[in-house]
Design brief:
This protein has 7 helices and 5 strands, in the order βββααααααββα. The chain has 2 domains: 30 residues, no CATH class; 160 residues, Up-down Bundle (Bromodomain-like), CATH 1.20.1550. The relative contact order is 0.14. It is elongated and about 55 Å long. By secondary structure, it is mostly helical. It starts with a strand and ends in a 5-residue tail after the last helix.
């Protein structure tokens, strides 16, 4: 296991646990594939926090009001980020513990991918087949039981079919679908790969 700290000159230094020799000090690699489980999952938690932060920025600064499916995609990011954070803080030494966190991460990402996939499908419908706009998520949660709310949200509404934001030709739900798949792949890889520390 490597112990790392930051010196005033803003450089990271690491040494093997139990090693006191200064000749074994080395700068921390900038390659995230060589990082420890804790560092990789900590980066995943930070990325999830950044993505939720951007969603809030898009809502409150850019004026993009989230539809119900967008809200559920944010919840999926929060769940993935929570798994990343708890796993990074726990930092299990046993491979079975890391794999457990990897599987939990994949399950949360699959939930996000299913919501984002449904959202992308609604956005790809021709205008004549788009469902009518329904009431907001706040009203649905107050007026109906949770099971009915989920059924109505996944049926979709006209507001979910609108494309208000694009980057490189893809809508926000399409990017979310890609990011969920990347998180699932990277998280599972970090959990199952053999480590010498």
């Amino acid at each position: 296991m490597l112990l790392c700290w930051r010196l005033p000159a803003a450089r990271w230094h690491c040494r093997a646990r139990g090693s006191e020799s200064k000749s074994e000090y080395m700068p921390m690699s900038l390659n995230p594939f060589s990082w420890s489980f804790r560092s990789q999952y900590g980066l995943g938690a930070a990325l999830c926090a950044g993505l939720v932060g951007y969603a809030l920025y898009a809502q409150h600064v850019l004026g993009l009001e989230p539809c119900p499916l967008c809200v559920f995609q944010r919840i999926a990011y929060m769940a993935i980020g929570a798994v990343f954070l708890v796993a990074a803080l726990h930092n299990p030494r046993a491979r079975a513990g890391r794999i457990t966190y990897g599987v939990l991460l994949v399950l949360a990402a699959i939930g996000g991918m299913s919501v984002a996939g449904r959202h992308v499908w609604l956005q790809s419908l021709p205008p004549s087949e788009v469902p009518a706009c329904g009431p907001g998520l706040d009203y649905l949660l107050e007026a109906f039981p949770l099971q009915d709310v989920l059924a109505r949200v996944f049926r979709g509404s006209g507001e979910c079919a609108e494309i208000d934001w694009t980057f490189l030709g893809l809508s926000m739900p399409a990017w979310n679908l890609i990011v969920y798949a990347l998180f699932a792949t990277a998280g599972l890889w970090a959990a199952v790969r053999r480590r010498d520390r």
